[in-house]
Specification:
297 residues; mainly beta; Neuraminidase; 4-stranded antiparallel beta sheet; 24 strands; 7% helix
């Protein structure tokens, strides 16, 4: 009997390290950081530890976004002289340029099925929301409006797109439209002259987090129903608070805080109700292009 127990014990000892090796102890997040002197995309634990530079190009790289299967990352880079959309493998290898024109192409976001990528471009003379196939083909203007339209993001079911627009004439607002660009609806109904709206959907598709000014000054993170109902302010930090992103399980929201007089932004985490705000990366983020991206489950 002792020999049998010894064998079982050895088997458990051999299995345990294998399980530990493949276990992911905490969620991962992509973040654009200037810690190397220019903007690079880092993959790190959600608490800011174990950061790994994925781009290593000495050229600015920003706006990272995961493919839903976690195998590809889309991002913005000016490595060829102007901002364009690129994709790379999850380890930073096999970089491929998707947009090639004279305009600026920014803020890519994969569709939930991974077949399409939304982005914003000013190739038509003003910023518009475009969509293309995930390989860069079939690029199409969805907004076709003379106003500034940008910051697009898919709803979790892929049927809707939230974006920021100046079409009210008084400042940026959050709008929602169908995935084909039809049925545009103003959901925030309040103007944000300072910009940095960056809407993002909750994983269940019922809420949208975004940023807007407050009377006390600065821009804070708010959340509202997908139809614009039940607005609630989540941050009261002063300065600029934006680029929010929900974790896949809906338990955390990452966002950027840029205090007055600070040269770079910091990455923060909070609960969906605004509580437990915690700084995880201090003073390394860009004011523009610093959208964090949670790794899919």
């Amino acid at each position: 009997m002792r020999r049998v127990l010894l064998v079982v014990g050895l088997a458990c000892a051999l299995v345990t390290p294998v399980v530990a090796r493949f276990a992911d102890p905490q969620p991962k997040i992509l973040y654009a950081s200037n810690r190397s002197g220019n903007l690079e995309i880092y993959l790190m634990n959600a608490d800011g530890t174990d950061a790994k530079n994925l781009t290593e190009s000495k050229i600015n790289n920003m706006d990272p976004a995961w493919a839903p299967d976690g195998k590809l990352i889309a991002f913005t880079s000016d490595r060829n002289g102007t901002k364009d959309i690129y994709v790379m493998d999850a380890d930073g290898k096999n970089v491929k340029q998707l947009t090639k024109d004279n305009g600026e192409n920014r803020i890519p976001t994969f569709s939930p099925d991974g077949k399409k990528i939304l982005f914003a471009t000013n190739r038509d003379g003003n910023y518009e929301v475009y969509v293309m196939d995930a390989d860069g083909s079939n690029q199409k203007n969805l907004t076709n409006d003379e106003s500034y339209d940008a910051d697009p993001v898919w709803s979790p079911d892929g049927k809707k797109i939230a974006f920021a627009s100046l079409r009210s004439g008084q400042g940026f607002r959050v709008y929602v439209m169908d995935a084909d660009g039809k049925n545009v609806e103003d959901v925030s109904k309040t103007d944000n002259p300072q910009g940095y709206v960056y809407p993002t959907w909750s994983p269940d598709g019922k809420q949208i987090a975004y940023a807007e000014p407050v009377e006390e000054g600065g821009v804070e993170v708010f959340v509202m129903g997908a139809d614009g109902s039940n607005k609630k302010q989540l941050t009261k930090m002063g300065g600029m608070n934006t680029h929010s992103a929900w974790s896949p399980d809906g338990k955390k929201i990452a966002f950027q805080h840029w205090g007055q007089g600070e040269e770079s932004a910091s990455l923060y985490m909070m609960d969906p109700d605004g509580s437990n705000q915690k700084e995880v990366v201090k003073g390394e983020g860009p004011v523009e292009g610093g959208r964090p991206a949670w790794k899919p489950k």
